[in-house]
Amino acid sequence: MKKVLVVLAHPNFEKSRGNRALIEAICELPSVTIHHLYKQYSQWQIDVQAEQALLIQQDLIVFQHPLYWYSVPPLLKKWMDDVLTFGFAFGQDGTALKGKELMPVITTGGLPELYAAGGGANFTISELLRPIQQTATFCGMGYKTPFVVYGFLPQELEIPGAITDEQLFQEANRYRQFLQHYMAG
Q1: Which candidate, 72, 96, 71, places its Cα nearest to that of 84?
Q2: Most C-beta atoms within 10 A of its C-beta, which of 44, 83, 157, 160?
Q3: pLDDT above 80: residue 90
Q4: What is the rounded distance in angstroms from the CA atom of residue 163 to the CA atom of residue 124?
Q5: What is the rounded CA–CA span in Å between residue 162 and residue 2?
Q6: Mean pLDDT on 69-73
Q7: Domain ranges in the chain?
Q8: Is 38 within 8 Å of 9 (Cβ atoms)?
Q9: Distance CA 122, CA 144 (A)
Q10: Cα separations (Å) of 12 from 86, 112, 126?
């Protein structure tokens, strides 16, 4: 069975509706390790050797986080800078991640039409995630299509298009099913 590492990077996970539902849907899957960066490294002192050892054991590495100023949350960026180093993840001897796969799992406050050509964000999700895609390529990893859940707007505002609890449940199930299928393959 393939092994999956979910690198969860949510600065305020306790108040998260979306990321929490996604994690709850997968937390009991065999061969899935959930690695909560903000819980593990509240002082931002990353244990590089432990992180690299964890990565080596995986087949699929998931970066799960809210879209944060059109990018990753700051601790995930620091983790990438510290852990994906020359001689480990890239460079002449940096082949530790070669052949593994990387997949972003993203939640957004914006609705899907915001992330369309001509939308308010000016770019599609695929375009905004190009640095992550290039990171995977640079490290010799495959890049899986991002799993994106849109519309995490405050429910009390009753904004049309905001994700409902039922839609969130369906998306969380779809995420679990994807990982189950991946691990079995």
Answers
A1: 96
A2: 83
A3: yes
A4: 19
A5: 34
A6: 95
A7: 4-184
A8: yes
A9: 23
A10: 31, 23, 25
Q: In angstroms, rounded to a whole number, what is the distance separating the alpha carbons of residues 153 and 161?
A: 9
Per-residue tokens: 139: 């490290």
In the numeric block, the tokens 């406050």 are attached to 109
Are the C-beta atoms of 61 and 100 separated by less than 8 Å?
Answer: yes
pLDDT digit string (tens) for 128-163? 999 999 999 999 999 999 999 999 876 666 677 789
Asked whether 7 and 61 are in contact (CB, 8 A), the reply is yes
Gap between the Cα atoms of 142 and 170, Å rounded? 27
Distance CA 59, CA 179 (A): 12
Token pair, residue 69, equals: 């100023």
Retrieve residue 156's tokens.
Answer: 């009390």
Query: Distance (Å, rounded) from C-alpha 110 to C-alpha 58?
Result: 32
For 167-185, how does the pLDDT look when each residue is reduced to its tens digit (9 = 90+)? 999 999 999 999 999 999 8
DSSP state of 113: G
Extract the tokens encoding 125: 């999700």
